[in-house]
Amino acid sequence: MLMRAVTVSRFGGPEEIEITELPAPAPGPGEVRIKVGAAALNPVDAAIRAGIFGGEGERLGLGWDVAGMIEAVGTGVDREVGKRVMGLATGHREPLGTHADYVVLDAAAVAPAPGSLDDIQAATLPLNTLSAFQSLELLALRPGQKLLVTGAAGAVGGHAVELAHRHGLEITAMASPSDEPFLLSRGMDHFLSREKVPAPAGFDGVLDAAGLGRCALDAVRDGGSYVGLWPGQEPEPERGIRVQALDVKADGAQLAALSRLADQGELLARVARTYRLEDAMAAHARLAEGGLRGRLVLVP
After folding, report:
1. What are phi and psi of 181, to 5 degrees?
2. Which CATH number applies to 129-245: 3.30.470.20, 3.40.50.720, 3.50.90.10, 3.40.50.300?
């Protein structure tokens, strides 16, 4: 059985996107094959396309997020064919990603999709909610402590505000002034315009979803915590601050809990626009323009 997949064999801009016909992957032991219903486009996909993670001369598959239906299972998998799921495929130099008609994932990376959301909505959740959840785990703040989230209106930042609110943190959200009503509705306590950088100091922790680096670090109190989203781009530690960068992990158990929160309305799935799989080049071009609130989603 053949399928289509979005790949790159040369690095560069959106024009390097290719739609490649390949054999559909077969699930091995402990794996499931998912018929892709929808797959979100994330900045990491653009970074892979641009060659930031290397792989010159290789054909690389794109796509980390997926929502769809289990179509086949490997040995040792206690999953039911036909069930709707969502999952996360990690890896910067993989031959296949989720931007395809079918994808094989480790069963441990898959969780039930929220029953209240369709595949397009559910496909926006895995990478961004897991990134927010695991970043807050790294910060290790206690209820009542002060958190600054930069880039708070973005996909990861928005979910971080929602989850931090559940955890009882005092949240200051940094974003564009037009995003203040949205962030207030998601649980922030204080708003800080991104136009007023640098931020005031004294936060117990900063989740730097905007990648401000040193400017965000300056807002952390002595002995506090800083977490960035791009390994290798975090600022140097100082003043006893724990500086870490998230290396997001696929975790089906965590994702199942996040799926339940989405069903309860506590995590909002935001879709900016959908594209057909064959229009992936246009989707990458739109991502490059910036200014999105929500994710672009590819639909096979």
Report:
1. -60, -40
2. 3.40.50.720
